[in-house]
Design brief:
This protein has helices spanning 25-28, 68-81, 95-107, 121-127, 165-178, 191-208, 223-232, 239-256, 262-274, 287-294, 322-327; strands at 2-6, 13-18, 35-41, 53-59, 88-93, 114-118, 132-137, 140-147, 152-156, 305-308, 315-318. The chain has 334 residues and is α/β, with parallel strands linked by helices. A 7-stranded mixed beta sheet has the order 1-2-9-6-5-3-4. It has a two-stranded antiparallel ribbon with strand order 7-8. Helix 4 runs parallel beside helix 5 (165-178). 47% of the residues are buried.
Amino acid sequence: MIELEVPLADRSYPVLVGAGVRHRLLEVLPVGVKRVAVVTQASIPVEVDPGTDHRVFTMGEGEDAKDLGTIEDLCRDWAQWGLNRGDCVVAVGGGVVTDTAGFAAAVYHRGIPVVHVSTTLLGQVDAAIGGKTGVNLPEGKNLVGAFWQPAAVLCDTEVLSTLPPREYRNGLGEMAKYAFLGVDDLADLPLDEAVAACVRCKADVVGSDERESGRRAILNYGHTLGHALETAGRYDLRHGEAVAIGLIYAAELARRLGRIDSARVAAHRRVVAGYDLPLTVPPGLDPESLVDLFSRDKKAVDGVTFVLDGPAGVEPVRVDDRSLLLDTFSDVVE
């Protein structure tokens, strides 16, 4: 087991990485908890034992279930059961579950503790860490949410063997971005160490900028186009696949802006291809509608903001040239 910490002063919390760490749940629950609401999905073949009175609440499948209707359902079910501020929520699943259950925990009784038991690679290297919770609107991903740090996160690498190949690859899309955020030789590390390296990187960023007022935006590398592709809803893409395409697009955009050279773009393509992830946008792409969606991205405070590579590393950059954004799509078509 590898034990890490997300450093947030008196709200710091542990992240345990390794095979079987889901069985350490009782050890990381907040002291004094009497009841635990376990939130999961019917398709997730992972059971946990909080060692105290608990009830399982099952939410719907897929991104469609990550909405305000699910938040209302969970909160009403918890209220009927009698869950209170001295109790705890345990989210067992991937990013859809931890994002949704985390947000419900943040708003129920104005905030009750939550522990994440992450069961997907994408969740373990990204979604379960850092306290960003939220749900989608028809107008865009994660537009309603809250910062609500968990009491602990368990990244059980043993359960990753149950993932279908495409779902595992989905996590590799998030992992790929860390190769450009300072994690060296990531592809050569054993699985537990690779997950821990990504967690360590994210914990460092979150510890320095919890509420995304500056540096934390770099964790959205590849996500501007990625989220637009997902929001458009016309393309058969998982989140990590969309982010992988977004990484290539962002690299090509940075090259066109003179921030990086062709060799650096080639490095992006090698990393993404090495994880067997898509390098090009799907057929039937509508660049105009996707550029329109860029302005709905959470980073878009004043105009379109991308996270781009450059001489000082990856950083947020405002891009006002719509023609440039449209032209860059020619670099990511098959």
